[in-house]
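>> received
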Amino acid sequence: MVGGLAKLKIRKRGGILNSLLYILLLPVYLLGKVFPRDPNLFAFGSGHGNFWMDNSKYFFLYCSQNLKSTKCVFFCRDKEVVRQLNQAGYESYYTYSARGIITALRAGKCFISHSTHDINALLIGGAEKIQLWHGTPLKLICYDVLALSTGFGQTLKNRLKRILFTLFPYLNTGLVYDKITISSDFVKASFLSAFRAKNENIVITGQPRNDALSDDYIFDQQLFPEIAHLERLRHEYQHVITWMPTHRLRSGRGTVGLLDNFAFDLESLQQLFQQHGATLVVKVHFLDSPDLKRRFEGCSGIKVYPFADPYPLLRYTDILISDYSSVVFDYLLLDRPIIFTPFDYEEYTQSDAPFYYNYQSVAPGRHCRNWPEVLDALHYHLTCHENGETDSYHERRAAICRQFNMFSDGFSSRVVASIFGR
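>> returned
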């Protein structure tokens, strides 16, 4: 089974016309503010309502399996996701179905990972909204990004937004929550700043998606078809290496540009992998995936990952290659080698956003400026692994992991205990 639960899909959202329509629907929002809420009805959503993914996904599974007195419903605009979840015995509603609308109006608590669009921004105004977010950000997010904008036009736009958000609060879909869960006290300052949140609204629990990194976590293969795919890779290769670059939102440089402009040598890479019995799995943002598929089509030893959720893949990954992705902080929990590729550091921090932390101090691993340096780092780590040796970055990884992850397991259960006292 692959379908909507796993395959990458592209959907558009937002826009001026949608915002204008939302303004006209103010009475619907006001109804949602006063509609009677059921404290034992929990709504979950993620990926702006289009995907089955991230912290909401794993927390929904945990709550559905362990909170027997609570009804848990996952909302999605992809009917295939809804069908497959229901087929697997879980409760899921299409966002705009009659049951989806009524349930969103009645839900006492809403758990989201991106924005209130994850469920239904118009209808959940009267519910308690818990933001699980989608990682520990390295770069500036939310209000901190808006504060970077300067100039008369941008200032006028921001003032107009503030007025609209005051008159129509449901338009502010990404920034106002009752609770925000984070992974450690060290990262609290960035979340307080990004969301303009109060200290008492921040809860340190860890991220539910990191439950999947534990050897004790059992994947239901009806919901995780990628496990069969990953087991085949593990059987076929001695080492699974994952390249997971960050999407270039503003710089315009696609992932293919990270190959062409930094001396990528396919033949040398394949020779190295053949020597060590390794494969490279390329997991990129869905907007970059088509270009990468074309680039690596027919290349032995290189696979473009076709599934949306990276967390099962991370558990099967022996070495991670990444640049500015928040998954690095999660992967530290596994204490496995990370190779950092800040090829375009200056361009990225200027075009996309500055960072909350000094990159050199929070990225514990070899920092490579081009692909030849990546190959050298890969050879080092693969050789260490084959010789049963501990690589030289082990202690630094452990130190950074303690900063960014206050806990090492039991993340979903801790969210329940911290928020509900159960």
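>> Residues 152-167 form the longest helix (16 residues).
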